[in-house]
Amino acid sequence: MDYRDLFFVDPDKTLKLKDVDPAYKGHHETAEAAAADTARYQSELMSRQSLLYAEKNHSVLIVLQALDAGGKDGTVNHVFAAFNPQGANVTGFKQPTPLELAHDFLWRVHPHAPAKGEIAIFNRSHYEDVLVTRVHKLIDKPTLTARYARIREFEKGLAEAGTTILKFFLHISKEEQLARFAERLDDPERNWKISESDYAERALWDDYTIAFEEALSATSTRHAPWFVIPANHKWFRNLAVSQIVADTMDDLHMSYPKPTVDLADIRRKYHAAEKAEKKQQTN
Amino acid sequence: MDYRDLFFVDPDKTLKLKDVDPAYKGHHETAEAAAADTARYQSELMSRQSLLYAEKNHSVLIVLQALDAGGKDGTVNHVFAAFNPQGANVTGFKQPTPLELAHDFLWRVHPHAPAKGEIAIFNRSHYEDVLVTRVHKLIDKPTLTARYARIREFEKGLAEAGTTILKFFLHISKEEQLARFAERLDDPERNWKISESDYAERALWDDYTIAFEEALSATSTRHAPWFVIPANHKWFRNLAVSQIVADTMDDLHMSYPKPTVDLADIRRKYHAAEKAEKKQQTN
């Protein structure tokens, strides 16, 4: 099963999130059954990153969006920890600062686009500017429509410059969110993060659903696709995201560069001499 | 054995790298024997990072320097891959660009200093500006001396702002370097990196040794210590660096913040209601 086909947000169709089962598990019944496949994709991520870094022809941008407790941090820590941290950069976009707000909404994002050979992971992104701003009525309808267009153009420009873009919406049910909030309440390593606003945002669930459905449809393209990932089961989310990124990087058909020097010559000039020298020393 | 004491570069003594055995293995004879200890320190790195991120009182800056093939990349990939990539940022400093050269030598470094809650790892660093520049006679003696002072002041400022600084020189023997170069020649995933200049730099080994000895002595302080890590054995290098970072973060005595909301109140207001609602639905 190629999850790129199954979870792709087709811009020519109307996305209805209620049609996607957040508890979907594919052909694996349990985390244990999926573990070997996930490990294989993780290992592919490592080797493909090594090729990407060596070849320096492509770059990769991964965007993660979700409602609170949707699993963005978990995906970073469990899927993308497979990458060598050198060459894979995670940027978390928080509430914009006054300086950032004084610029166009892509100004703070652009500097974090990946260079050739590199992978950038956005934990939240420029999509917040068509999601949270819309739900809280900070922007009007024409601004929203204009921003969809700006995002499409921005991403097209990145793609033309050699960036492979993959965008994931981690889709959980409303019940699963509450269950995850409840887990946090009981966990002293995480309960310091809880605020009333988590619950206030939760009350806007239906507004966020509409905002996501529209934003994803308006900005999913072949060169910058959105995927709706069923994410109630963390192990399935990790499997699906790993597979989609690994398969996509595989399709780049990368190869290691040829040596720029004559290897035989280098061996003769430097290594043979050193061996002789060493031999002489030991005599 | 606290490797912080054993490998610390005492600024009041004259550092002689030939007095440090690059093949040192501590009390472990083999990689297998050290594996459990290294795994324990790695797991401590993960939990301490989580505390660092939560508390947001401290930041950590790790500097890696070594001659070619000394193991900087390997240390990033094997030791610091333990960190959650969100909140641990690796910066590789390459040959400066014309724009960077048009500024003071710390200009390109400062923006990568870690924010509170974060860890920054420098693969090469501002120390290149007192090492490679000195060996290649790009700077004169007064400039070198002035740069030592600038570095000490810069790091003092970071330390005063809550940054814990740890600097590692990965120390390998000249023979080990040649053996690692030879391995690269035979490895199609790495032989594309080989250039004649690697061997040209190798010919300057003694000049680099003097440059490192002087730079480390001139800039090792209690708040920004240098450690000379025996690095012929990669497993020992990984163990020693893991231990030093883990023990140092442990000494920060961090704790999770207290919740800012009344947890019982949150439970009552949001979770009790939801349970009742759910019960009603199932009735």
UniProtKB/TrEMBL annotation, chains A, B:
InterPro entries: P-loop_NTPase (IPR027417), Polyphosphate_phosphotransfera (IPR016898), PPK2-rel_1 (IPR022300), PPK2-related (IPR022488). It catalyses: [phosphate](n) + ATP = [phosphate](n+1) + ADP. Keywords: ATP synthesis, Kinase, Transferase. It comes from the Bacteria. One of its GO terms (molecular function) is polyphosphate kinase activity. The keyword RNA-binding does not apply. Pfam families: PPK2. One of its GO terms (biological process) is ATP biosynthetic process. Its EC number is 2.7.4.-, 2.7.4.1. It is an enzyme of class 2 (transferase). Residues 33-251 form the Polyphosphate kinase-2-related domain. Belongs to the polyphosphate kinase 2 (PPK2) family. Class I subfamily. This is Polyphosphate:AMP/ADP phosphotransferase. It comes from Methylocella tundrae.
